[in-house]
């Protein structure tokens, strides 16, 4: 009788454990888990762009200021060469004041441009830095909830011309990204550090080519709430990337029109990690991301010289084709390690349009840049694509030492 009772309780306990293991829901169908995990994938690709953007900002400023410096220098030379004719003419004092005011503005413009162009000297290294703050929201779709994020970054660079119209430089980057996704406010904080090298080559016909090669190491810390408990985790990721862009420079007075194409490719390895806090914590396998993203766009800028400084408003329209892919990770609960759940997350492929409005403000040794971006799905009727919209506001400070 005692043996039968013991056998009955043993069988009941085993069936209870089996039921408990099967009672766990598929973690990929939980919005907080799926949202937090997808936020990591989005972040990996976003950080590639955050690493490349400061370099592009610096290279664009070199190109623009070199062009403006040459144009303003020619204007000053023409003004001074005809100054003796003006002095002999019967002019009013107001005209003389206006002439000297224009000469002063032009000379200041040349000085400001040249202060950012010391790297034109072949034997000198030039040092610069970019500090940035970016706030954005990636809209929800049928697969995941919306993602809200803030990214702070600092890039320090050095560069020099090793031959005419050929620039070579290096950068050290660091950044912090904070993202929230899911209904319970799942949070993801990522700190990263990276190194990159870049080249700019001037080509015939006012074309120029920019290339960048870089590596990043990222440390992510996540937190989510489950059944009144907080589950925390830490994950390491490693990233390598390359970017190449071809730009055409067209001038119409004070307007600059730059058609361009760009391609970013990269590989990211996200290491396995597990949540801690309760037995309901989830463990995730390794994931690999392949980045293949193409850009085709046109940038229009207008140079304004005022008594208060130099302003450069600009606008951009860009088509983005993202052909990136991701491996399918697996997950399991801590209380049921033998039950594996395969990811049902979609690939990262999408096509979209990006619209940009921005303003550059020049001061003595650098630039302030204010920019707003709006991205919309280019194929809303395509069932296999993630249909979502996003908005981003960024502020950058470029300073040359």
Helix segment count? 4
Taken as a percent bin, the fraction of beta residues is over 45%
Fraction of residues in H or I helices? 25-40%
Morphology call = elongated
The secondary-structure element order is: HHHHEEEEEEEEEEEEEEEEEEE
Main attributes of the structure:
19 strands, 25% helix, 401 residues, 12-stranded antiparallel beta barrel, 4 helices, alpha+beta, single chain, 4-stranded antiparallel sheet
Please give a structural write-up.
The chain has 401 residues and is an alpha+beta fold. It is built from 4 helices and 19 strands. The chain has a 12-stranded antiparallel barrel. Helix 2 crosses helix 4. The radius of gyration is 28 Å and the shape is elongated. It starts with a helix and ends with a strand. About 9% of the residues have low confidence.
Mind sketching the topology for me?
Blueprint lengths: L1 H22 L7 H51 L1 H6 L4 H23 L10 E13 L8 E17 L2 E16 L4 E18 L3 E20 L2 E20 L1 E3 L2 E16 L2 E2 L7 E3 L2 E16 L1 E3 L2 E14 L2 E2 L3 E4 L2 E7 L7 E14 L2 E12 L12 E11 L1
Antiparallel strand pairs: 1-2, 1-19, 2-3, 3-4, 4-5, 5-6, 6-8, 7-8, 8-11, 9-10, 10-15, 11-13, 11-14, 12-13, 13-17, 15-16, 17-18, 18-19
Helix pairs in contact: 2-4
Give a quick precis of the structure.
The protein is α+β, with helices and mostly antiparallel strands and 401 residues long.
């Amino acid at each position: 009788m005692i043996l039968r009772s013991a056998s009955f309780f043993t069988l009941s306990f085993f069936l209870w454990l089996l039921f408990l293991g099967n009672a766990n829901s598929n973690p990929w169908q939980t919005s907080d888990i799926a949202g937090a995990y997808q936020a990591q994938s989005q972040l990996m690709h976003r950080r590639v762009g955050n690493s490349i953007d400061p370099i592009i900002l610096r290279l664009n400023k070199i190109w623009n200021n070199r062009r403006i410096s040459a144009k303003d220098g020619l204007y000053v030379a023409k003004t001074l060469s005809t100054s003796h004719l003006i002095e002999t003419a019967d002019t009013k004092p107001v005209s003389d004041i206006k002439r000297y005011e224009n000469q002063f503005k032009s000379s200041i413009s040349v000085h400001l441009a040249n202060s950012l162009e010391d790297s034109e000297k072949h034997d000198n290294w030039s040092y610069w830095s970019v500090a940035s703050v970016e706030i954005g929201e990636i809209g929800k779709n049928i697969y995941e909830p919306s993602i809200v994020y803030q990214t702070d970054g600092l890039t320090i660079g050095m560069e020099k011309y090793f031959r005419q119209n050929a620039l070579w430089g290096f950068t050290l980057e660091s950044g912090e990204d904070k993202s929230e996704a899911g209904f319970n406010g799942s949070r993801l904080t990522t700190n990263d550090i990276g190194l990159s090298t870049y080249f700019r080559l001037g080509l015939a016909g006012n074309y120029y080519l920019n290339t960048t090669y870089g590596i990043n190491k990222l440390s992510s810390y996540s937190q989510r709430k489950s059944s009144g408990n907080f589950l925390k985790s830490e994950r390491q990721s490693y990233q390598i990337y390359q970017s190449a862009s071809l730009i055409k420079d067209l001038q119409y007075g004070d307007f600059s029109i730059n058609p361009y194409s760009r391609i970013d490719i990269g590989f990211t390895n996200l290491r396995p990690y597990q949540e801690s806090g309760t037995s309901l914590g989830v463990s995730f396998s390794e994931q690999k991301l392949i980045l293949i993203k193409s850009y085709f766009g046109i940038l229009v800028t207008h140079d304004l010289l005022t008594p208060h400084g130099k302003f450069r408003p600009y606008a951009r329209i860009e088509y983005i084709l993202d052909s990136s892919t991701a491996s399918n990770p697996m997950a399991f609960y801590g209380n049921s390690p033998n039950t594996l759940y395969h990811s049902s997350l979609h690939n990262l492929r999408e096509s979209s349009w990006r619209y940009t409005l921005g303003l550059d403000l020049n001061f003595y040794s650098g630039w302030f840049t204010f920019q707003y971006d709006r991205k919309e799905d280019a194929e809303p009727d395509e069932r296999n694509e993630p249909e979502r919209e996003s908005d981003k506001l960024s502020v950058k400070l470029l300073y040359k030492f």
